[in-house]
Amino acid sequence: MTVGMTEGSDRISMAARLRNNFLTGLIICAPMTITIYLTWTFIHWADSWVKPYLPDRYNPEAYLKFAVPGTGLLIAILFITLVGFLGRNLIGRSIVSYSENILNRMPLVRTVYKSTKQIFETVLKEQGNSFKKVGLIEFPRAGTWALVFVSTDAKGEIAARLNQDGEEMVAVFLAPTPVPTAGFLMFVPRSKLMLLDMSPEEGVKLLISAGLVTPEYKPSVADAMAAFQDLAVDDPVEPPKRAGRS
């Protein structure tokens, strides 16, 4: 009877080891495979957009007998960098201004161009604070908290209409789980927003993993002192009582 139990335990142990080894291998291989696949797909997508417009004299594949992946992506990066360099001098700014005047005269095109330009200027602005902070708001009801990315302070008409009580409003982006490609733009009072110390990258990881990948948290000295003060207030130490005379 003991021998049978030992053999059954060995089988269970062997099955558990195989399962653990498989899960460990999956954790190692899956992220690497997905990353390589997405990178390779993006390179081919960029090549398919650039190579058809590339003259044969500048195309390395015209001289080689094999395809060179990444040529289109490299040329696109160089071209965008060159346009940015030219756009920072006087002649380049004049050309860009003239092109913008032409686009602004087209009824449908000007709306798309202005909206797209405003989005890129806001997101790629070097000194901007867009999506550099992560916070929590009570959503969808009081007592439950949702992770949000802080966009910017409310401006324009929204600020004029919502800041009537004297409290500033903040624009936040509430992304769904596990694919944060769409979500809700919400305006909340600054006092209702709880800012976190985690970076936006850590917030995205927490969001995509549905809370499974939690970033490491090291409380600051101020937080530790505040927690100690709260503990001292909640549990005050009573002074020892002096024994009375009998």
TrEMBL record:
<keyword id="KW-0812">Transmembrane</keyword>
<protein>
    <recommendedName>
        <fullName>Transmembrane protein</fullName>
    </recommendedName>
</protein>
<feature type="transmembrane region" description="Helical">
    <location>
        <begin position="21"/>
        <end position="43"/>
    </location>
</feature>
<dbReference type="Pfam" id="PF04367">
    <property type="entry name" value="DUF502"/>
</dbReference>
<keyword id="KW-1133">Transmembrane helix</keyword>
<feature type="transmembrane region" description="Helical">
    <location>
        <begin position="63"/>
        <end position="86"/>
    </location>
</feature>
<dbReference type="InterPro" id="IPR007462">
    <property type="entry name" value="COV1-like"/>
</dbReference>
<keyword id="KW-0472">Membrane</keyword>
